[in-house]
Amino acid sequence: MSTARRPFLKMNGLGNDFVVWDARDVPLTLPVEQIASLGDRNTGIGFDQMITVERSGVGADAFMRIHNRDGSQVDACGNATRCVGRLLMEENGLEAATIETRAGLLHAFRTGAPQTITVDMGKPRLAWDQIPLAEEFHDTRAIELQIGPIDAPCLHTPAAVSMGNPHAIFWVKDVEAYDLGTIGPLLEHHPVFPEGANISLAHVFAPNEIRVKVWERGAGVTRACGTAACAVAVAAARDRKAGRTSTIHLPGGALTIEWREKDDHVLMTGLTEIEFEGEVDLDTLTWEKTQAGDASIAGAAE
Q1: Is 140 a domain residue?
Q2: Rounded to the nearest 5°, which phi and psi values hold at 36?
Q3: What is the CATH classification number for the domain harbouring 156?
Q4: Tens-binned pLDDT, residue by residue, of the chain (302 aa)
Q5: What is the pTM of this model?
Q6: 167 with 196, same domain?
Q7: Which residues are substrate-binding (predicted)?
C-alpha cells in the first residue's frame, strides 16, 4: 500500500457523520483545504466532522482531535465521542473508555446493545464568560438577541450554554417554520458569540420530549449534534420546560439526555453506526470503500 494511502472508518451517531482516522502509530495532519475537500458531500467522502484518534498524553485510552467540515478545529463533539468510545471499547474488550479532548477527559461506556453508547459530557458551563459571550449577561437562560424587526422579531432571547463549545437555543413552536440554512450562519457569527456558536431551534411537544433542529458551527445544518442535544436538555431543565432527563428528537433520531443532579454531569445515550471502511489517497484525495459494516478501529488500520 502506498504511504500516501490511508485507511479510515465512516461512522455516524444518528446521522451526525464522521470520517475517523487512526493516527496513534502513524501521525496524520491534513491542511484545511484537504479537510474541506474530503468533507464535501458532492466531490469528497462527505462528513460533518473529521476525527483523528491519537495517543493520549495524560494516560487516557486515546486523544480525539476534531475538525469541522470547513477545516476548523473544535473542542467537543458528543456523537463523535460516543463513536470513538465504541471503537476503543471493541478494540480493548472493555465496557468503558476514557477519551482525552481539548475540552477535557470524557468517559464513554456501554449501556445495553453494543451499538448503544453513553458518554459523560461533564458539567455544562452556564456563566456568560464561560460560554463565552462578548458581554455580561446575569441570566443566560435568555440573552438579548433577536432576528427580524425590533417590534416583531421572528427569533429572540435564546438560552446560552456551553458543552465544551458554545450553543444558543431558541424556543419555537415549530422547528420547521424557519430557514435554518439562511439564519444559521448569521447567528453563528453574531458579535455576541466571540468564538461563534451552534444554533438550535427547540420545541417541547410533550413532557420531557423535545424536537430540535441544529445549525452546527463550521458544519451547517446537521441530522444530529450531541452537544446541542445536551445544551437543549440543560436549557429546558433550567427554564423548567422539562425535567432533568429528557428525550431529544433530532432529524437523525433520538438521544436520551440526563442532567444528573448529584454532580451536575450531563449523560448522553444513543445509537452509533459504522457505515464502512475506506481508503484515501492523500496525494489525489481519491477514495474508495474497502469493506462494509462493522469493523474496529484496529481492523481499519491494518
Answers
A1: no
A2: -65, -40
A3: 3.10.310.10
A4: 446 899 999 999 999 999 999 999 999 999 999 999 999 999 999 999 999 999 999 999 999 999 999 999 999 899 999 999 999 999 999 999 999 999 899 999 998 777 899 999 999 999 999 999 999 999 999 999 998 888 888 899 999 999 999 999 999 999 999 999 999 999 999 999 999 999 999 999 999 999 999 999 988 999 999 999 999 999 999 999 999 999 999 999 999 999 999 999 999 999 999 999 999 999 999 999 999 876 444 343 33
A5: 0.88
A6: yes
A7: 16, 49, 68, 78-79, 165, 198, 216-217, 226-227
| Whether residue 106 sits in one domain with residue 194 | no
Residues 236 and 288 in one domain: no
Domain range spanning residue 68?
5-121+272-300
Q: Is 92 annotated as a binding residue?
A: no
Tell me, yes or no, if 77 is annotated catalytic: yes
d(CA 279, CA 282): 9
For residue 129, being part of any structural domain is answered with no
Q: Is 226 annotated as a binding residue?
A: yes
Residue 196 known to bind ligand: no
- The answer to whether 217 is annotated as binding is yes
Residue 83 catalytic?
A: no
- In whole angstroms, give the CA distance from residue 174 to residue 212: 9
Q: Do residue 112 and residue 152 come from a single domain?
A: no
231 and 288 both lie in a single domain:
no
Distance CA 209, CA 198 (A): 21
**How far is residue 159's CA from residue 144's CA, in Å, rounded to a whole number?**
9
User: What number of residues does the chain have?
Assistant: 302
Helices and strands in the chain, H and E counts? 5, 20
**Which is catalytic among the residues 83, 154, 225, 230?**
225
Answer yes or no: is 89 within a domain. Answer: yes
195 is in an annotated binding site: no
What the block records as the C-alpha cell of 137 is 449577561
